[in-house]
Predict the structure of Fumarate reductase/succinate dehydrogenase flavoprotein.
Amino acid sequence: MNKENDSTNFGKNQKTGINPDGLKETMESYNLACQSQDKEFNKSRKYLKSINGPRYYALKFAPSAYGSLGGIKINHKTEVVDIQGNVIEGLYAAGSDANSICDPDYVFVLPGNTLGFAVNSGRMAGKNAVEFIKTAFVEE
Ligand SMILES: Cc1cc2nc3c(=O)[nH]c(=O)nc-3n(C[C@H](O)[C@H](O)[C@H](O)COP(=O)(O)OP(=O)(O)OC[C@H]3O[C@@H](n4cnc5c(N)ncnc54)[C@H](O)[C@@H]3O)c2cc1C
């Protein structure tokens, strides 16, 4: 959106494809809400900042899938357990496939929590699997 945001030319130079009249109306009604109360979305007063700068930039946002997390249940030894909690011998899981620490929510404010889990549970699962192989498949 360019500088010419007066009442006649408001938003006309913007390249977003947003209807300029609709944009003008939205911004005017938002700015009005900033002076009193947001009755449309009930946005808290502390977040109501009027839009009246000389220039604005626009970004296009779209919803998308971030990834999947969890699904396979493991015990403290990274052994996969069935629905009754019984160990499935020789089967180990780690990382995203087994991550239930984020269930039900992915905690974005805790940086590295899923990578940390992936690295450490992977190390543990690898070590435990090697131990299992050593004991289960002893050469005669
Ligand atoms: C955009 C984005 C940002 C992220 N940012 C953060 C962050 O800031 N902090 C954080 O902690 N976590 C972050 N994560 C999550 C983090 O990346 C994962 O938790 C971590 O990579 C999980 O590791 P993993 O080894 O379990 O799985 P993955 O890294 O997904 O590795 C699985 C591997 O298995 C391979 N594979 C799949 N199927 C087969 C098959 N049949 N045969 C052979 N190989 C196969 C795949 O190609 C892949 O290489 C982010 C994830 C995304 C998508």
Observations:
- The two ends are 78 Å apart (CA to CA).
